[in-house]
């Protein structure tokens, strides 16, 4: 690990000032500290967000659930509000990594990091969530921009994410057993604006599958999902799975999600 200094801001404004000056934001450290230990990252200065009370917690605003950026996965998994309004989101959080990761990892860190195999980005995209930062609100459709890349500007801080409650939703994750990330994960949501299907683990970053969305908007059945041919051309191929295998998993996981939602 390279040497670094640690700041502990008490307010979002102080954290933003540090970030604007070049400090790297530290949430639960589940990705950042690991990459620093491997000398893949040399931030020089860290701004630890854990002392900023405003960034943690979950609240209902009508039919919307607002989750503070520093809220841990375990707290999303156990939240009565999330379980009542968006049970699929609580279930997703309950199956991230292992207990230690869920006890330290945060929703803001996960979404800002935008790992192409992370679970939360698929929920954010499928549910049409809004990412709140210290300067603006960004819709999920505009936020994710490919592998480890987002619409956040340098020094911009996620403060919360708001999720409109869907009519129904389901996340189906096919676990990569070594990392516990998604080899392929599919989040299906029936929203006020129709069915949205977001895929993680399979491509260069989370993406919506317009073919599956069109088929499921026309007929929300397992057969309708199964009839969609999934193109493997732009999908990942690595030692864990070929692109064709991932394409098949997108179809199978979508069918499973639809079956569960109809049950
Ligand atoms: C063994 C293991 C298994 C895992 N399994 C899964 C899994 O199954 N599914 C899954 O989805 N994830 C998984 N993860 C990822 C984990 O859930 C964390 O959310 C992720 O690693 C980010 O960690 P963190 O929240 O501690 O953020 P950090 O590591 O502290 O930060 C990550 C990045 O986000 C930036 N950042 C943090 N907070 C903010 C903010 N509020 N605003 C702007 N930028 C910010 C940081 O500067 C840094 O660049 C796993 C991680 C590990 C180590």
The strand count comes to: 12
Q: Return the CATH class of one domain.
A: Alpha Beta
Oligomer: single chain
Radius of gyration: 18 Å
Characteristics:
single chain; 263 residues; alpha+beta; Uridine Diphospho-n-acetylenolpyruvylglucosamine Reductase, domain 2; Enolase-like, domain 1; five-stranded antiparallel β-sheet; four-stranded antiparallel β-sheet; 12 helices; 35% helix; globular; binds flavin-adenine dinucleotide
Could you describe the 3D structure shown?
- The protein is α+β, with helices and mostly antiparallel strands.
- Among the domains are: about 50 residues, Uridine Diphospho-n-acetylenolpyruvylglucosamine Reductase, domain 2 (2-Layer Sandwich), CATH 3.30.43.10; about 100 residues, CO dehydrogenase flavoprotein, C-terminal domain (Enolase-like, domain 1), CATH 3.30.390.
- Helices cover about 35% and strands about 25% of the residues.
- The protein has 12 helices and 12 strands.
- A 5-stranded antiparallel β-sheet has the order 4-5-8-6-7. It has a 4-stranded antiparallel β-sheet with strand order 9-10-11-12, sandwiched between helices. A 3-stranded parallel β-sheet has the order 1-3-2, covered by helices on one side.
- The chain starts with a strand and ends with a helix.
- The structure holds flavin-adenine dinucleotide.
- The site of flavin-adenine dinucleotide (FAD) has 31 residues, from strand 2, helix 6 and helix 7.
- The site of flavin-adenine dinucleotide has 31 residues, from strand 2, helix 6 and helix 7.
């Amino acid at each position: 690990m390279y040497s670094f200094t640690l700041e502990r801001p008490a307010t979002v404004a102080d954290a933003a000032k540090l970030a604007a000056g070049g400090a790297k934001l530290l949430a639960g450290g589940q990705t950042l500290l690991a990459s620093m230990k491997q000398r893949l990252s040399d931030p020089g200065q860290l701004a630890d967000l854990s002392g900023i009370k405003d960034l943690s917690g979950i609240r209902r605003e009508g039919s919307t659930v607002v989750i503070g950026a520093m809220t841990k996965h375990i707290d999303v998994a156990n939240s009565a509000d999330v379980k009542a309004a968006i049970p699929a989101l609580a279930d997703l959080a309950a199956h991230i990594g292992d207990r230690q990761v869920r006890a330290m990892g945060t929703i803001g860190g996960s979404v800002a990091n935008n790992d192409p195999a992370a679970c939360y980005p698929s929920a954010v995209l499928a549910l049409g969530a809004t990412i709140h930062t210290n300067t603006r609100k960004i819709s999920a459709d505009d936020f994710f921009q490919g592998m480890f890349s987002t619409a956040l500007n340098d020094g911009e801080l996620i403060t919360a994410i708001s999720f409109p409650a869907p009519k129904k939703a389901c996340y189906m994750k096919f676990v990569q057993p070594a990392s516990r990330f998604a080899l392929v994960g599919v989040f299906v949501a029936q929203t006020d604006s129709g069915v949205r299907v977001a895929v993680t683990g399979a491509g260069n970053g989370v993406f919506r599958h317009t073919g599956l969305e069109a088929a499921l908007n026309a007929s929300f059945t397992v057969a309708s999902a199964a009839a969609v041919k999934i193109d493997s051309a732009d999908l990942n191929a690595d030692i864990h799975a070929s692109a064709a295998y991932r394409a098949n998993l997108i179809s199978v996981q979508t069918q499973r999600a639809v079956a569960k939602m109809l049950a």
